[in-house]
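Weekly sync, protein design subgroup
Attendees: M.S., D.O., the rotation student, P.L. (late)

Item 1: inverse folding check
M.S. brought a backbone from last month's batch and wanted to see whether the design step gives back something sensible before we order anything. D.O. pointed out we never logged the input encoding, so this time it goes straight into the notes. Structure tokens as presented (230 positions):
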């Protein structure tokens, strides 16, 4: 059953702010009704401080939010995971041999369904590309290689010279700057197109913000994030 409470203030805005602060929620989480002041025309109260009352009712949380069930990723059979790893390793050996450059790699199996490839060596810089575009494309290729003749879904994560971690830090810092900008100027900000991986970092960084929200707009390679006030 929803909780309903009454809060007071000198103005309706102040009363609402008092209620939100005490309930520790944002405006989107409550239904607000400004109550009439029954004695505001009384002669005996004309010099008394003005008091505005608001009724606030907590909204019912959606079932999917109150009963979050994390779906566990289906475990890939050991045989198929090992097969996928060998297919990736064979491809990388041939690829690096043909390049004849200073590149090394390490392959690990993670979480029962993921193959992690960490690439190093001075020449591996070219595998990153502008904002990781080449790295993302190379990861797509390795996903196809790993999953060849395997019906189960194999995940492949590829990184080079610690680029992923550095890029995540850059995007998280960007998210914080944009949040401050939106709050200060009270105007929404539309970011440049990003990959799904990069958009997820921005969404995750700002998901608990009390003052801004994020949403993705656009299609395919033009999909981007809009940060706006709640």
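Designed sequence read out in the meeting:
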């Amino acid at each position: 059953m929803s909780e309903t409470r009454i809060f007071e203030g000198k103005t309706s805005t102040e009363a609402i702010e008092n209620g939100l602060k005490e309930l520790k929620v944002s405006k989107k989480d409550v239904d607000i009704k400004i109550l009439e002041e029954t004695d505001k025309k009384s002669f005996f109260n004309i010099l008394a401080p003005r008091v505005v009352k608001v009724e606030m009712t907590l909204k019912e949380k959606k079932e999917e939010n109150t009963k979050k069930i994390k779906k566990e990723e289906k475990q890939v059979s050991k045989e198929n995971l090992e097969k996928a790893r060998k297919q990736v390793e064979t491809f990388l050996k041939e690829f690096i041999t043909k390049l004849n450059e200073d590149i090394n790699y390490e392959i690990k199996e993670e979480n029962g369904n993921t193959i992690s490839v960490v690439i190093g060596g001075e020449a591996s810089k070219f595998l990153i590309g502008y904002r990781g575009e080449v790295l993302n494309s190379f990861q797509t290729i390795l996903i196809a290689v790993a999953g060849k003749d395997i019906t189960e879904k194999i995940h492949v994560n590829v990184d080079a010279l610690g680029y992923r971690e550095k890029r995540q830090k850059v995007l998280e810092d960007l998210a914080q700057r944009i949040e401050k900008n939106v709050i200060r100027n009270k105007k929404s900000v539309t970011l440049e197109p990003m990959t799904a991986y990069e958009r997820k970092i921005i969404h995750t960084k700002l998901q608990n913000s009390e003052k801004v929200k994020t949403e993705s707009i656009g299609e395919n390679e033009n999909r981007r994030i809009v940060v706006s006030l709640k």
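Discussion: The first strand starts at residue 4 and ends at 9. Confidence is low (pLDDT under 50) at residues 38-46, 62-71.
Action: P.L. to compare against the previous round before Friday.
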